[in-house]
Design goal:
This protein is α/β, with parallel strands linked by helices and 437 residues long. It contains 16 helices and 19 strands. The chain is globular.
Length: 437
């Protein structure tokens, strides 16, 4: 059980800027018109389509594909965006392989499913790029709603409320809106600043004010928002990364993966990001995959991803696991970490398996074992998340919630968008007196 000797090798510019730009190119390049028409023609346009049932936002997938087939791109985009206003981002980051495409009737050992995600991107990109507004605002209601959190849940809620005629103020903790779409997704999944292009499209509907650098509990207080606004929606995510709870976790070179990803996403020159020659990633979810693959793309020679349970328990999809492996990441299973080794700076991690202990050398260690949130006043919580009903109402009067912060949140943009949409519909009904408080 030995660890390589020598000083940790962490530095920037392991690869040239051109090499890194090539590594961070679009993971799934968009379809051309001819490719889209050919792919759309593969759809059977099923009645009671299983792909639509599998979509968390309930997009009528056969309908939008049929419109692509007839060259009605505006109509196709409208079908998508009326159910999922972040359909452009979801076309890029949704795990379609375990949602709509897995349910596709063409998905068999003999053929591949219809490429629904790429078709969705084909339909939505021209509309979003041109800032074409498909949903005019209703007559002003005179009601004001506070949305805490500028991520997918908050933006979805705000947009639907604005379309319904309400005034919305978004209180956003970060300097930019977008939440994890802006700060937490691998850079090769959403290139060319698409996250902000989509945010700009959403905000252009009108009736939405964004206040940046406003964190709940620090810059704004929930009781004050309840007093000032007619309704409050919480889309605050989880925010705080989980600790490993092991010896040596505080050493230099042990980094929260989500923090590094955020810094990488905001970097003007990715080649200037320091990365180790040998990297160990602890975790088995999408964030673990994202940081492992990006470490390789930045020039790490060896990247080990270590998960404490078996592959069947990993929350990262089979596609994402395969992406990591084909990118040169070695995945280890059933190996919980026991301690971080080193003096001031990490030089290795000790793991324990049923067969005994082993050590992996590391210049850098990324923690990617999930996030948590602190309790919020008197609001009902369960296992560190907010309890909501089917309309996304919390235990506090006139307060709704959605996204990763609620019980049932699953770290997917598409699910957060649905939560925000459902909450907005319920808020609108409540404000118009269609439901009792």
């Amino acid at each position: 059980m030995t660890v390589e000797s020598g000083q940790p090798d962490v530095r920037a510019k392991r690869l040239s800027k051109d090499e890194i730009e090539a590594n961070f190119a679009d993971l799934h390049p968009p379809l051309s018109r001819s490719e889209a028409l050919i792919e759309a023609d593969r759809c059977y346009f099923c009645y009671d389509a299983p792909c639509t049932t599998a979509c968390p936002t309930g997009i009528d997938i056969p309908s939008f594909i049929q419109k692509i087939r007839s060259d009605n791109i505006r109509g196709s985009a409208r079908t998508i965006l009326r159910e999922n206003i972040m359909g452009g981002m979801c076309a890029r980051v949704c795990p379609t392989e375990v949602l709509c495409e897995e349910a596709c009737v063409r998905n068999s050992h003999a053929e591949k499913p219809v490429e629904i995600g790429l078709l969705q991107r084909y339909a939505t990109d021209p509309i979003i790029d041109a800032r074409t507004q498909l949903f005019p605002r209703a007559e002003a209601s005179g009601k004001r709603v506070a949305v805490v959190g500028g991520g997918p849940a908050g933006l979805s809620c705000a947009h639907r409320l604005a379309v319904l005629g309400h005034e919305v103020v978004i209180f956003n903790r970060d300097e930019k809106p977008g939440g994890l779409n802006e700060y937490g997704i691998a850079a090769y999944k959403t290139v060319d600043d698409f996250a902000q292009i989509e945010v700009d499209y959403i905000l252009r509907v009108g009736g939405i004010e964004v206040r940046h650098s406003c964190a709940l509990g620090e810059d704004v207080q929930l009781p004050e928002l309840i007093d000032e606004f007619d309704a409050v929606f919480l889309g605050i995510g989880l925010g705080q990364s989980n600790d490993l709870g092991i010896e040596g976790e505080d050493k230099d070179g042990v980094i929260n993966a989500i923090d590094y990803i955020a810094e990488l996403r905001q970097a003007d020159d990715k080649s200037r990001m320091p990365i180790g020659r040998t990297v160990v990633v602890i975790g088995g979810g999408m964030t673990a995959i994202d940081i492992a693959v990006q470490s390789r793309h930045l020039g790490a020679r060896q990247v080990h991803m270590v998960y404490r349970r078996g592959p069947e328990k990993m929350s990262a999809s089979v596609f994402e696991q395969a992406l990591a492996q084909t990118s040169g990441v070695t995945i280890h299973h059933r190996a919980p970490p026991k301690r971080i080794i080193g003096d001031d700076h990490v030089i290795g991690v000790e793991f324990e398996t049923d067969d005994g202990k082993f050590v992996l050398y590391a210049d850098m260690v990324f923690k990617a074992i999930g996030q948590q949130m602190e309790g919020i006043g008197d609001i009902e919580m369960e296992n560190g998340r907010i309890v909501v009903d089917d309309g996304h109402r919390t235990s506090l009067t006139r307060v709704w919630a959605g996204g990763d912060c609620v019980v049932g949140g699953d770290d997917l943009t598409v699910s957060a968008v649905q939560h925000g949409k459902l909450a907005a519909i319920d808020i609108d009904q409540q404000l118009r007196g269609a439901k009792s408080g």
